[in-house]
Amino acid sequence: MSDPVFENTSLAQQIEEARKALADGQFEIAAIRANVLWLENVDDEDLIELYADILQQSGRPEPANKIRNLLSNDDQALALFEAGFALIDVRQYDLAAMLLTECDKLTPDDPGVNYELGFSMMALGGFSQAIAYFEKAMAIQPDFDSALNLSVCYLLTRDLENSKKLTNQLSALAKEDDEIKETTHRKIVLKRAESFAAKKTLTAQDWLFILYGSVLLKPHFNTVTKPEDHKAIAENLLILKGFFEGMRQEIEVIEYYNTQSRPLARVLSEIMEITLDSYKGPNRPEKVLLVMDWASDIIGPHESFIDNSDKRLIFAYGLPGAEPLPLVPDINAYLSNPGLIPWDDVSKADADMHFDKILDKARNMESDPDVIKAVEDLLIYFEPRKKELVMGNSENFPDRPEYSAEIPVIK
After folding, report:
1. Distance between CA 290 and CA 320 in Å, rounded?
2. Beta carbons of 254 and 277 less than 8 angstroms apart
């Protein structure tokens, strides 16, 4: 997609502008501009060198070298494959798909190329396109990863018959412990999806439940439109409180990780009348609610939470809709791109100010008919599905699933 600012500017001038941004340390601006230009000019050597320089100066020398190899490698198919794979590694899926498509023209029957091209398309939300490449990879060389991703894409396009067929194949292909666990998870996901087969259009709430056994407080993708909208935050926290009460889920303490999430945790502590504490480590004996401002910042480093436990409930206020995580929160207020906390890193005084404003809104809304209706709708939806939730169900789901952001309604 062309940038209107540069519509009447030559390619050389646009590359020069991107290089100037890079020289000024504006890596993100340079990368965005270079990305757009390279997608439109796949063979341009100046753009290849520019993108390699951006990666190099951003502290990613290995993928930078793979990109530079496009300029000097005699085996162009190999260079394209390695550069495409490196771009997948840095989550530049559109550029990866571009290079791997060129590679596929040179080696159309290579199962590795077809698999990585399918993976890139899947990561971009092009599930139907991904299916064609995964099917080809499976026809040439059946393996667990290709069958797994093909079964996922079939499910995401709601082709449950083919998804079931591929899921059954996984059992024969699974050898390692992780593969066996993933196969078990896919069977659970398929079972959930089959229960929605008669529903014409699935919401974000449906997909999050089907794919991960996770709760979304409201059915649809939402955004906070104003940074000062403390009312929306208060409403979500009151709905969360009502959900816990309705599901008879007892919470003994609320933990928070940092200053950013402290206002949320304090408000929950007040309205639920339970203990508040800051995070002290992974081996707390009591049941906890982890209150987070950014799911990726909070969950990522703590691998100890991958094992599910009824003593730990994870709540994400703004779950990224496009960023994979090591695991899925039990409950989510929003699916969002970007996150929805209306403040950046804050001081204790600023955090207290936000706490006061949110709590004041919450106190005034506890009997609000919209909140009561939202809680009722939530309980009507999830009460019959309680045994399929990861929340409070570690016996049936000892391992938390990985969140891969493959939710079709989130674009």
Report:
1. 16
2. yes
Query: From CA 238, how far away is CA 362, in angstroms rounded?
Result: 7
Give first-to-last CA distance, the chain, whole Å: 16
Cβ atoms of residues 137 and 115 within 8 Å: yes
Cα–Cα distance between 296 and 294 in angstroms, integer?
6
**CATH number assigned to the domain covering 204-388:** 3.40.50
Q: What is the DSSP secondary structure assignment for residue 407, as one 8-state letter?
A: -
Q: Do the strands 331-336 and 215-216 form a parallel or antiparallel pair, or are they unpaired? A: parallel
Q: Which fold has domain 1-107?
A: 1.25.40
Question: Buried b vs exposed e over 230-244: b needs ≥16 C-beta within 10 Å?
Answer: bbbbbbbbbbbbbbb
Residue 109: Cβ within 10 Å count: 11
212 neighbors 328 (Cβ within 8 angstroms): yes
| The pTM of the whole model exceeds 0.70 | yes
Distance from CA of residue 280 to its chain's centroid?
Answer: 26
CA dihedral 258, 29, 406, 295 (to 10 degrees): 0
Alpha-carbon 160 to chain mean position: 23
User: Quick check: do 1-107 and 204-388 share a fold?
Assistant: no
DSSP β-bridge partners for residue 319: 335
Residue 315: φ, ψ to 5°:
-115, 125
Name the pairing type of β-strands 275-278 and 331-336: unpaired
Beta strand 275-278 with 288-292 is unpaired
Distance CA 190, CA 13 (A): 51
Using an 8 Å Cβ cutoff, are 190 and 164 in contact? yes
Mean pLDDT, 10 residues at a time, the chain of 411 residues? 58 93 92 94 94 94 96 91 95 95 96 96 93 96 95 96 95 91 94 96 93 90 59 92 95 83 90 87 71 60 68 83 79 73 70 88 94 96 96 90 75 43
Distance CA 297, CA 308 (A): 19
Which CA distances in Å does 309 have to 217, 233, 391, 394?
21, 27, 9, 5
Q: How many degrees, rounded to 5, is the angle at CA 298 between CA 56 and CA 220?
A: 100
Could you tell me the two tokens for 310? Answer: 């009824």
Q: Report domain extents, the chain.
A: 1-107, 108-123+133-198, 204-388
Q: Tokens 């008919």 appear where?
A: 369
Question: DSSP class of residue 238?
Answer: H
CB 287 within 8 A of CB 310: yes
3-class SS of residue 314 = strand
